[in-house]
Write a structure and sequence with these properties.
The complex is a heterodimer of chains A (257) and B (220).
Chain A lengths: L1 E10 L2 E11 L4 E5 L6 H8 L7 E6 L2 E7 L2 E4 L2 H9 L1 E4 L11 H11 L5 H14 L15 H13 L5 E5 L7 H16 L3 E5 L3 H7 L2 E6 L2 E6 L1 H6 L4 H8 L2 H5 L4
Parallel strand pairs in A: 3-9, 3-10, 7-8, 8-9
Antiparallel strand pairs in A: 1-2, 1-4, 4-5, 5-6, 10-11
Helix pairs in contact in A: 3-4, 3-5, 5-6
Chain B lengths: L1 H45 L4 H16 L2 H16 L5 H26 L3 H9 L4 H31 L11 H12 L3 H27 L5
Classes of the chains: A alpha/beta (257), B mainly alpha (220).
Bound molecules: adenosine-5'-triphosphate and magnesium ion.
Adenosine-5'-triphosphate binds next to strand 2 and helix 1 of chain A.
C-alpha cells in the first residue's frame, strides 16, 4: 500500500530524515514512535506533501509519488500528486478544524468541493461518520463549542469522509487533557478493527502496543528498530530503544486502560 | 415676512448642500468599490514569494502611506498635464488618488489579517485536497474578513472625513460648498449642516459594521 525507500530531508544544514525506508501493507496499523525531534512529524509531512523530500522514493499503491533520478527527487506531475494526496488522510496534533464551519460543514467541505460529491450524499456520509464517532447531536455545533477530544474526533471524521486508503495521525492525543485521550484512542481503535490502513505517530505506548501490528522506532532521522509490538516493547536488545522506552514505563504498565 | 425669506434661503442652502453630499457620497462609494478588492490584490502582492512582485508592492505601500493624501490628490490631478499635456476630469482623478491611497491602507489591514491565520488552516485545507486558490477563498478569506472588520471600519470612517480633501483641486463636494455658503450668507449654519451630514454618515457606517460583526459572531 505504501512503500518508502531511502527518504532524505534536510532543513538547511539539519538533516532530519537520513534515509528512511518503511512499508505499510493494506489493512496494517503501524505505530511510529521516537524521541522529540527525531523526525516523525517531518516524515508524515513528507508523505502528505506538506514538505518535499530531497531524495528517496515514495510509492502509494501503484503510483509513484516521488522518485530519485541522478540524486535529486523528481515528483510526479501535479494532477497525479493531487490524486495521490486524496488517497492519503492526515489527522493533526491540534485538529485544525475550520472554525467558521459547523461540524457538518467541516466534514462535507472536501467531499463536495474537491471530489464533487452531491451535497445530499456528502451529508448522509457525514451523518454516518458522526454516528460512528458518537457525535451525532453535535453536527450543527462550531468547533469552539467542542472539547478537544470532540474536535479531534470530528477531525478524524473529516479525514475519513474522503475515504482515504491510508490515514496518518500525528500525535492525535498530545494536545488533549489526559481524561480526553481515551475517547480519541477509542475511535482510532474502532478504525483499526475495520482494517483501516493507518500510520500513527504516538507517545501513548500502551495504545501503540494494543492497536499496532507493527511498531517503528525512529531516532535522529533513522529507523533503528521495527517489529511487532512484542518485539519492540518486550525484549529489545537495542540500547537507544530501551533508553527511550524507559521514559514510558508507566504508560506500558497502565496498558490495561 | 422674515420667516418666509429665511425658510426659502434655508431650502436653497439645503439643496446645494445635498448636491455636494452627492459628490461626497459618490467619491466615498467609488473608493470603497475599487480599493477594497485592489487592497486585497496589493496585500497578496506584498506577501508574494517573488521579490519582483513583493518589492514594488512594498515600495508603493510605503510611499503612499508615507505621504499626505492631499499631496497625492494634487499630484495625480496635475501629473497628466505636465507629462502629456492633457487634463482629465477632476472628479475622476480625485477618485484615482483615493483608490490608490485607500488600497494601500486596506492592503496592510488585509496582510495583518491573512498573517494572523494559523498555518494549520492552510495545511488542513491542502491535505484535504483543496487547491491553493480554494484554500484561500473558502478557508482563509472568511476568517480574515471577521478579523479585519474593526480596523476596516476605522478606515471607512476616516474615508468619510477625508473626502473633504478633494476641494484642493476645486471639486464642489459638501465641505467646499458649505464653506462657500458660509461666506456668502455670513452664517455658520452651512458648516453645522455639513458637520451633521458627516456625523450621520459615520453613525450609519458604525452601525452597519457593528451589525456585520454581530453576524460573524457565530464562531470564534
Ligand atoms: N520547517 C522546518 N524548518 C526547519 N527545521 C524544521 C522544520 N520542521 C522541523 N524541523 C526540525 O526537524 C527536526 C525534526 O522535527 P520533527 O517535528 O519532525 O520531530 P518530531 O519527531 O515530530 O518531534 P516531536 O515528538 O517533538 O513532535 C527538528 O530538529 C526540527 O527542529
Ligand atoms: Mg512531531
Amino acid at each position: 500500500m505504501l512503500t518508502v525507500t531511502d527518504v532524505r530531508k534536510r532543513f538547511g544544514n539539519n538533516e532530519v530524515l537520513k534515509g528512511v525506508s518503511l512499508e505499510i501493507a493494506q489493512g496494517e496499523v503501524v505505530a511510529l514512535i521516537g524521541p522529540s525531534g527525531s523526525g516523525k512529524s517531518t516524515l508524515l509531512r513528507c508523505l502528505n506533501q506538506l514538505e518535499r523530500v530531497d531524495s528517496g522514493r515514495i510509492v502509494v499503491g501503484e503510483d509513484v509519488m516521488v522518485d530519485t533520478v541522478g540524486g535529486a527527487a523528481v515528483y510526479a506531475p501535479k494532477a497525479k500528486l493531487s490524486a495521490i494526496n486524496l488517497r492519503l488522510g492526515l489527522v493533526f496534533q491540534n485538529f485544525n478544524l475550520f472554525p467558521h464551519m459547523s461540524v457538518l460543514e467541516n466534514i462535507i467541505a472536501a467531499p463536495v468541493d474537491v471530489k464533487g460529491m452531491e451535497k445530499e450524499a456528502a451529508v448522509a456520509l457525514a451523518r454516518d461518520l458522526l454516528l460512528q464517532i458518537g457525535l451525532s447531536e453535535k453536527e450543527d455545533a462550531y468547533p469552539y463549542q467542542l472539547s478537544g477530544g470532540q474536535q479531534q474526533r470530528v477531525a478524524i471524521a473529516r479525514a475519513m469522509a474522503l475515504s482515504p486508503d491510508i490515514l496518518f495521525f500525528d500525535e492525535p492525543t498530545s494536545a488533549l487533557d489526559p481524561e480526553l485521550t481515551g475517547e480519541v484512542l477509542k475511535v482510532i481503535k474502532q478504525l483499526a478493527a475495520t482494517r483501516m490502513t493507518m500510520l500513527i505517530v504516538t507517545h501513548e505506548m500502551a495504545f501503540a502496543r494494543d492497536v499496532a501490528d507493527k511498531v517503528i522506532f525512529l531516532d535522529a532521522g533513522t529507523i533503528i528498530a521495527s517489529g511487532t509490538p512484542e518485539e519492540i516493547f518486550a525484549n529489545s536488545d537495542n540500547e537507544r530503544l530501551r533508553a527511550f522506552l524507559s521514559n514510558f514505563h508507566n504508560g506500558i504498565v497502565e496498558g490495561a486502560r | 415676512m422674515f420667516d418666509s425669506v429665511d425658510w426659502g434661503n434655508l431650502g436653497n442652502l439645503l439643496i446645494r448642500m445635498v448636491e455636494g453630499l452627492g459628490v461626497t457620497l459618490s467619491l466615498f462609494v467609488l473608493t470603497l468599490l475599487f480599493a477594497l478588492p485592489l487592497g486585497l490584490l496589493l496585500a497578496l502582492g506584498r506577501m508574494a514569494k517573488s521579490p519582483f512582485v513583493r518589492k514594488p508592492a512594498e515600495w508603493l505601500i510605503m510611499v503612499v502611506r508615507g505621504t499626505p493624501l492631499m499631496l497625492q490628490i494634487v499630484l495625480v490631478y496635475f501629473m497628466p498635464y505636465y507629462i502629456i499635456g492633457v487634463n482629465f476630469d477632476r472628479f475622476v482623478m480625485a477618485t484615482v488618488a483615493f483608490v490608490l491611497n485607500y488600497s494601500c491602507y486596506f492592503a496592510e489591514i488585509y496582510r495583518g489579517g491573512i498573517g494572523s491565520i494559523p498555518r494549520g488552516q492552510y495545511e488542513a485545507g491542502q491535505v484535504l485536497g483543496f487547491s491553493r486558490a480554494r484554500v484561500f477563498l473558502k478557508i482563509i478569506l472568511p476568517q480574515v474578513v471577521k478579523r479585519i472588520l474593526p480596523p476596516i471600519s476605522n478606515e471607512v470612517i476616516t474615508l468619510v472625513k477625508d473626502t473633504a480633501l478633494v476641494q484642493i483641486i476645486g471639486i464642489m463636494e459638501m465641505f467646499n460648498i458649505a464653506k462657500g455658503e458660509m461666506v456668502r450668507i455670513a452664517s455658520l449654519t452651512p458648516l453645522l449642516i455639513a458637520g451633521v451630514f458627516y456625523l450621520v454618515m459615520n453613525i450609519i457606517i458604525a452601525k452597519l459594521f457593528k451589525a456585520a460583526e454581530t453576524k460573524l459572531d457565530y464562531y470564534r
